[in-house]
């Protein structure tokens, strides 16, 4: 059975307390997967499961726990092969990062380039650390802290730096591009 994992529609809501940012927890066994059809946001996900990602011109097979980075400039689709995929995700706009951190050139990061390796396999220690960062992000997002936009941008930058540091050992993830099979992969937005 194939499962679809996607993101919630939220950024069009003018009443949203944080414009251009949303972090959320993922668990395909507990929650129905919301439909999400917009691809104009950057995304950082912490995913545990068996997933195949078609990203730009490459195919990645992710088994275990990974950080995955997606850019709105590069199309991707995801096929979930496990019955349960768990983790966290964060969607954000370039404007959110610039207005809350002053970090202007994050989109030049190697993580968001067309030839980048957009997923980082994590050791159990790294997975614990990234889980803690996402949990802090969720707590800050729901807090009344007046500078929570800046705090969230700091957590986001920490995840981006973790991904950049892990980039060296990623070539093993890529599979040869499959020939046309007549089936269409389902999207992880």
Please explain how this structure is put together.
This protein has 189 residues and is of the alpha+beta class. It has a single domain, classed as Jelly Rolls, CATH 2.60.120.280. The chain is built from 3 helices and 7 strands; from the N terminus they run βββββαβααβ. Strands 1, 2, 3, 4, 5, 6 and 7 form a 7-stranded antiparallel β-sheet that branches. The model is unreliable at 1-16 and 180-189 (pLDDT under 50).
Index terms:
189 residues; 7-stranded antiparallel beta sheet; globular; AraC family transcriptional regulator; Jelly Rolls; alpha+beta; single chain
Per CATH, the architecture is: Sandwich
* Largest sheet composition: 7 strands, antiparallel
Rounded mean pLDDT is 77
**What pattern of helices and strands is seen along the backbone?**
EEEEEHEHHE
Instruction: Write the CATH fold name.
Output: Jelly Rolls
CATH class placement: Mainly Beta
The total count of strands amounts to 7
Alpha-carbon Rg, integer: 16 Å
The count of helical stretches stands at 3
- Count of the separate structural domains: 1
Coarse morphology: globular
CATH homologous superfamily designation: Regulatory protein AraC
* Beta fraction: 25-35%
**Poorly predicted runs of 5 or more residues:** 1-16, 180-189
Distance between the termini: 19 Å
Q: Which class do the helix and strand fractions yield? A: alpha+beta
**Helix fraction by DSSP (H/I, runs of at least 4):** 10-25%
């Amino acid at each position: 059975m194939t499962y679809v994992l996607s993101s919630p529609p939220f950024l069009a809501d003018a009443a949203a307390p944080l414009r251009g940012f949303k972090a959320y927890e993922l668990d395909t066994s507990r929650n129905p997967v919301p439909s999400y059809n917009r691809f104009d946001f950057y995304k950082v996900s912490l995913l545990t499961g068996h997933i195949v990602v078609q990203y730009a011109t490459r195919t990645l097979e992710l088994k275990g726990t990974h950080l995955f980075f997606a850019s709105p400039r590069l199309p991707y689709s995801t096929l979930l092969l496990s019955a349960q995929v768990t983790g966290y995700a964060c969607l954000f706009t370039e404007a959110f990062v610039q207005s809350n951190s002053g970090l202007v050139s994050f989109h030049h990061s190697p993580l968001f380039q067309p030839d980048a390796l957009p997923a980082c396999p994590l050791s159990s220690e790294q997975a614990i650390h990234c889980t803690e960062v996402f949990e802090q992000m969720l707590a800050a997002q729901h807090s009344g802290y007046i500078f929570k936009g800046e705090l969230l941008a700091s957590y986001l930058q920490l995840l981006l730096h973790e991904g950049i540091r892990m980039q060296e050992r990623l070539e093993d993830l890529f599979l040869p591009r499959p020939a046309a099979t007549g089936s269409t992969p389902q999207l992880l937005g």
